[in-house]
Structure formats: structure tokens, C-alpha cells
Design a protein that fits this description.
Shape: globular
Mean pLDDT: 81
Number of strands: 0
Helix content: over 70%
Number of helices: 10
Radius of gyration: 17 Å
Distance between the termini: 28 Å
Oligomer: single chain
Order of helices and strands: HHHHHHHHHH
Structural class: mainly alpha
Number of domains: 1
Largest sheet: none
Length: 255
Amino acid sequence: MLMTTFLCVLIGLASGFMGAMTGVGGALLAVPLLLSLPTLLDLPFISVHATTGLAMVQGLTTNLVGVLVHKRAGFVSSFLLRWMGSGVVFGSLLGSVASRWFPDRWLLLMISFVLLFCAFQMLRPTPELDRDFAPSSPFPFASAGFLTGVLAGATGLGTGSLTIALLVYWLKVPIRIALGSTLGISLLAAIVGTMGKALTLQVPMVEGIGLSFGAALGALWGAKVSHKISAKILRNILAIFIAIAALHALWRSLG
């Protein structure tokens, strides 16, 4: 258990750093590493359900630290927090609790498809939408938030990348408003999702503490050096890694 916990600290450090550095969500890196590294290093296997629970804890820590570090950043829409945030919260609670009774194969399939979607979105050029944000109806945002919450709650992958992709590419929200609002939305979802995973006993306590400790340190480090390294290059590298991990999860689910 000691070596597994130490590995979780290292995974938290790497995923927290990359999450704060690129803004794509550290759980996208944490989930593939938690699923593959213990087996490669001949350590006790971390189950799929435990992996999704640990990833949710990692997302909570990274989002919390990210919000504290960037709390003075603007471009946060109260409309998005109210409508999309409420959809994400209900969806995340439903997905995280319901996942307790999902077969491992279902979860692996969901993880692989969400990872592939996020990798594809990360490789796409970001549109420059600088117009004013003037939504006409809350329904599309609440619906998108609910769908995002269900997927994120079940898989533990977090809502960051899914939320940004839907806001920017589907709902045509200006990128700066989308990025700023996603911080608050992701934090709300992570709080509710972690509660759901914990109440259904999907979060190993010791490994979760180690992962959170590493994620907090990594997020602080990543936020501080984010202006020194090209995030675009890191996002492309991470997208390729995530796509490979998604195919690996898909292969395991079909095996």
C-alpha cells in the first residue's frame, strides 16, 4: 500500500501540474495513469471504480487550488454558473452515484469515448469569439451542463474539457468567458461528484489523500509557470497521450 500511495502522490503531482498549466483538467491525465501504471510497475491493481473515485478527488483539489490562484481573473458569467452550473451539479451527482452499479466494461467504454472526444477537441484550433455574450435561453446551457455532469460524474474525468468544448464549439460562448466560468462550474461539479463517489465507497482513503497532496503541489507549480511555457505545445502532446490511453481503455473494455 505504501508504494501505491507514493505512486498516487506522483500521479497527482503530474496531473495537477498539467491541469493547471494547460487548463484541460488534470483528471484527463490521472485516469490513464491510474489505470495503467500500477500494472506496469507490478503494484496492486486499482479497480476501475476506485480510479474514477480517485480522479474525482484529484479534480476537486486541482480546481480548488486553481480557483484560489486565479480568483482575481475576470470573465466569469453568473448566467453560466447559475444555469450550466446547476445542470452540471445534478448530472454529476446522478452520474457519480449511479456509476456504483455500472459494470467495469461500461465505465471503461465511457472513459474511452470521453477521452477520445476531449483529445479531439484539444487538437482543434480555438476559435476567437470576442463578441458580447448575450444568451437568449437557459435551456441549451442547462441541458449541456446536465449531460456533462453525468459523464464526468460517472467517469471521474472532471468537467473542465467537456464544458469548455461545449461552450466554445457548440454554444458559441467567447473563449475568455468560457474559460473563466468553467473554473467555478468544474469546482461545483467536483464537490458534488466527490460526495457521490465517497458516499458509495468508491474512493480509497489513503490513496485519495496521497493523490490530493500531489495534485495540490502540482497545481500550484503549474499555475505559477503557466506563462513561461507554451501551453499549446503541451496541449497537443497531452492530447496524443490521452488518445492513446483512450484506445487502450477501449481495447480493455472489449477484451
